[in-house]
Amino acid sequence: MGTRLTLGALLWIAGTAETNAQQLFGEQLGSEDQRSFAEFLAMVQDESQPPAVNDAPATDANGPPDATEVQPSDRQAVVGPDESLKLADVIASLYRAYPDIQRARQLRPLAGGELLSAYGAYDTKFDAHSLSEPTGFYENYRSGLGLARQTWWGGYLKAGYRIGRGFYQPWYKERQTDDAGEFKIGVAQPLLQGRAIDPQRVAVFQASLQQQAAGPQFQAAILETSSDAISLYWEWVAAGAVLKAQQELLELAVKRGKQFEAGVKAGKFATVNLVLNQQLIAERSALRLKAEQKFQAASLKLGLYLRNEAGQPLVPSKNWLPTRFPRIQPQREFDFNADLAAALGRRPEPQILQYELRQVQWDRRLACNEMLPRFDFVTEASQDMGEPATKSDDKGEFELMIGFQSEVPIQRRKARGKIQSTSAKIIQINEKLRLVRDKIATDLQIAQNQLMLAEQIVQQSELSLRAALDTLARYQKGFEKGYIDLIYLNLLETKANETEIKLVEAQRDWFTALGALQISLGLDPLDQAVVVSSLPASEMPGPGNLPEVDEIDDQQIDQDFQPAE
């Protein structure tokens, strides 16, 4: 439980999936489990290629595919031809093709594009012009080209060449140059407002922060979707076990009904018992249908997270159901303070808010800088070349201009208002950050408490089921000897069935609580799912795995049903 969820999980899915998987599985899994994961590792090997949507199988317009109608290729792509669906298969499929995860993957290139765009403010700009006045009293021709760009420290640099020939209006004499043209360079540099920070640099810094925040945002999407997928997977496993339990209860009544039919024909049983048993068969058939309904709903919900190679929802088949839950591992004593510190370091929510806070702080710094007056140093130098354009040769000397420019809004309301709003935003984000940390602590406490109590509930449910099975075995013998009637036996069978289902639900709740604890700690869901999937099957009694009750002799049954003296 000490693995940290980072973008390394994404890299694991892409180029290094197979190598890391061999290292991770080599010491923990047998050859059968390694073959199980080999299929989905092959599926996630090339993460960089998007799903081929055009190659997706056509779906029925009347609804989603039935849980029992899954193409063999889809099965092999997820769980292999002869193996059950494991939690790691679902999470690996989710990492590869779930739309929310795919959308979150685009956050980094999106932020990278915004950062590249922000750097565009410092692009070198090329400009050129060619203007002519061929008619009129003042005929002239002028052309020019130049380069200009903004400097990182808020200044501006430009250089160019121009040439102007012909006759010019007296008020436009500066357009005229000597025969070889004029070279010019100019520099402007702010000394107060815009020197330490300016809008262009703030845009770059904020875009860079947004790019850094893409990692925690991707992690948040993984944790959120994985939490839902984990709950639905265990709900699906439990629903399948409940369906099997209801099927076993129904088969018990059907088997007894055949015995009653033979007994009635032989004159050993009353017809009323056969009629009552037929009623039980109908009631238990209805319960089985309800269990089937819930199982189908759980399958369809899980299919939203389980995806085939084309990225389309894949409804798991009934044949993919695990025969048992994994073995429940006793948990260590929790150190809440240490776990909370680790969770706060891993969880993406505080990191996202901290990046948001730093972006607002840049806006506030810019607003504080804009309270300063605009005071810029400017200089420009030019030199004409070639033969003089005029008799006075007034353009042949080197020209240099040096000076300062300044302006300031008297009220400075724009900057003051920005400072006020950004200060309020900083307070809001800090309060939200405090609340998020409190929620993480509460979630962790709830998850730890649920897991500890869920383990005790499982233990008590197992004891209750074993006692119920022993009691039922005794009463079944008592029914055969005539000590109880069919109505009372039905109550006991129903009670044992309910106890069996409660143990199934207790195991489901334990694994769901384990997943919730792992999510609250910010652990990598795929790493944790691999560990859970590698656990051996549970030895607890349950559907398809009910223990054999020790044979009870007739003398013991007679003693059990004799009233105490």
Outline? elongated
The major sheet is characterized as: 6 strands, antiparallel
Number of strands: 6
What is the chain-wise order of helices and strands?
Answer: HHHHHHHEEEEHHHHEEHHHH
Radius of gyration: 39 Å
Secondary structure layout:
Elements: H1 8-13, H2 17-25, H3 31-43, H4 72-78, H5 87-97, H6 99-105, H7 107-119, E1 125-133, E2 140-150, E3 156-166, E4 181-190, H8 199-266, H9 271-303, H10 336-346, H11 348-369, E5 374-385, E6 399-407, H12 413-480, H13 486-520, H14 525-533, H15 554-561
Antiparallel strand pairs: 1-2, 2-3, 3-4, 4-5, 5-6
Helix pairs in contact: 2-3, 3-5, 5-8, 5-14, 6-8, 7-8, 8-9, 8-11, 8-13, 10-12, 11-12, 12-13, 12-15
Description of the structure:
- The structure is a single chain.
- The chain has 565 residues and is of the alpha+beta class.
- It is 57% helix and 11% strand.
- It has helices at residues 8-13, 17-25, 31-43, 72-78, 87-97, 99-105, 107-119, 199-266, 271-303, 336-346, 348-369, 413-480, 486-520, 525-533, 554-561, and strands at 125-133, 140-150, 156-166, 181-190, 374-385, 399-407.
- The protein has a 6-stranded antiparallel sheet with strand order 1-2-3-4-5-6, with no helix packed on it.
- Helix 6 packs antiparallel against helix 8 (199-266) and helix 7 runs antiparallel to helix 8.
- The longest helix is centred in the middle third of the chain and has 68 residues, at 199-266.
- The chain is elongated, with a radius of gyration of 39 Å.
- The two termini are 58 Å apart.
- Residues 1-73 have low confidence and may be disordered.
Keywords:
6-stranded antiparallel β-sheet; alpha+beta; disordered N terminus; single chain; 6 strands; 565 residues; elongated; 15 helices
